[in-house]
Amino acid sequence: MHPVLTRILRPVVKGLYRLVLKVKRLIRRQRRTRQTAPRLRGQAAAVRIIPTVPASSGASSAAAPRWSARSLWLRVCAFFSEKGWWKKWPALAGMAVLATAVAVVLILALPGAAASVVMPPDGAYAALVNVLPEATPSLTPEPSPSAIPTLPPDPPETAAASPEPVPTPKPTPPPLQPGMHDERVIEIQSRLMDLGYMDNDEPTDYYGSATKYALQLFQRKHKLSVDGLIGEQTWAALFSKDAQPYTVKLGDRGTDVKEIQKRLKELKYFSGSITGEFGEKTEAAVKAFQKRNGLTVDGNVGEHTRDTLFSEDAKPAKTSSGSSGSKSGGSNNSSGNSGSNSGSSGGKSGGSKKTGSPATNDPDAAKVDALLAFAQTLLGKEYTRGGKGPNEFDCSGFVYYCLNNSGAKSIRYMTSGAWAKSSYDRVDSIGDLKPGDIICFKGHVGIYMGGGQMIHASSSADKVVIGSVTGSWAKKNFICGRRVVY
Fold it and tell me: For residues 453 and 446, what is the distance between their CA atoms, to the nearest angstrom?
């Protein structure tokens, strides 16, 4: 309907518009004429009647009436000023009504075209049909071409360079907090184990209390804020090439210092109070222990000093009677009064695979069943560095507690390094292990259950768990097995 109205009515509107323009020109000329000619008064004086001469009379063409634009306009004005003209000329009145109706229909049918064009006062119809008005005489002279300022030519269009794709920024990972599971924790635990701040174990993605404690030890060593959180400064220092390995020295304080003081006191090197502060008396006791056991005498407790301090081969201080004493580590009874909550399962001392004789006897089945059944009752118990039961364990404390409390074997406390260097019967291959064997890794120890599994206190998982001994970590860090139940 819209295109049909446009095609039909466009010529009508154009004609009306041109008629209006002609009437306007006539009005302008009439106004200029009135300014110079005497004003006609009355309707009779306004119209000059010229007698019509018949053509058959032979009169010349000069005697014919003159139809000027002015006389036409005066006749039109006189006609419309006459009252009741629409009764005499109904056809003309009908055409006027029709033209008005057409204009109204166009205004309603073409609102978009009319609204999108800013219409000047004299160009309503032209804007309505979207045509430009024809040139009309201008009352003001047009400027000469020389007076029109010349604009500089437009610069040539150049092909717009295709914008490079903007990479979508990766979302910032959330900060690590204790209790979270995050892939970044695996990297953190591995680094802490390499530096000796965390007991060696297969890393996990769990940020537990053992990981937090190891971070506190690292922060203490590097003069950072000791909060156990992995902030920007701690992360940068941990993975720096200047990161220092774990040692305990003069001026340090913490639970690990308490463990060292307890062990030194048990071996008769330290007689002071167990305060957890590494003072001058503690340093003197460490130096005396290092000298007695053939270690470098520097007063610092590093990996080798700690492994020796908590091993079954640690030599006690000489007594006034001159006896050197027996091997330390406490009694062999099941109470486990071996001394300290050492936390000495850390470090990566591997020991020799050649100590002890090759295992030839099969384990005692009844004792093995009792040992494994008791060990499984401790699943989920919390991991604590230096813990030896009944509710908190580290790896060597867990093995010690299970053997002595299940009735399988009464042994003295040994660290993971001491287990690897012990004189118990040796198993050189993971495939030759039997249930109940003690499986030794670099810096870690557990109880073999059979079927490629072991039960152990895991520092990375932060609790007692059942793990695999067939993965890459186990194969890389395996030292030997020790058969104690037979």
Answer: 10
Tell me how far apart the alpha carbons of residues 282 and 300 are, in angstroms, rounded to a whole number.
10
Express each pLDDT in 423-449 by its tens digit.
Answer: 899 999 999 999 999 999 998 999 999
User: Which residues share a beta bridge with 481?
Assistant: 427, 439
Amino acid at 463: K
Q: How far apart, in whole angstroms, are the C-alpha atoms of residue 60 and residue 108?
A: 55
Cα Rg of the chain (Å, integer): 55
Q: How does 83-122 read in b/e, with b if 16+ C-beta sit within 10 Å? A: eeeeeeeeeeeeeeeeeeebbeebeeebeeebeeeeeeee
Best CA proximity match to 419, nearest among 486, 352, 335:
352
Largest CA distance in the chain: 178
453-458 sheet: strands from edge to edge? 392-393, 382-383, 463-468, 453-458, 444-450, 438-441, 478-483, 425-427
Strand, helix or coil for residue 478? strand
Taking only the tens place, the pLDDT of each residue in 184-228 is 999 999 999 999 888 888 999 999 999 999 999 999 999 999 999
Write down the pTM of the prediction: 0.56
DSSP class of residue 366 equals H
* Residues 255, 247: Cα–Cα separation, whole Å: 14
| SS3 category, 468 | strand
239's tokens: 């993975």
Give me the DSSP letters along 227-291: SS---HHHHHHHTSTTPPPP-B-TT-BSHHHHHHHHHHHHTTS--S---SB--HHHHHHHHHHHH
Residues in the chain: 486
Taking CA atoms, 186 is separated from 124, 182, 211, in Å, by: 79, 8, 10
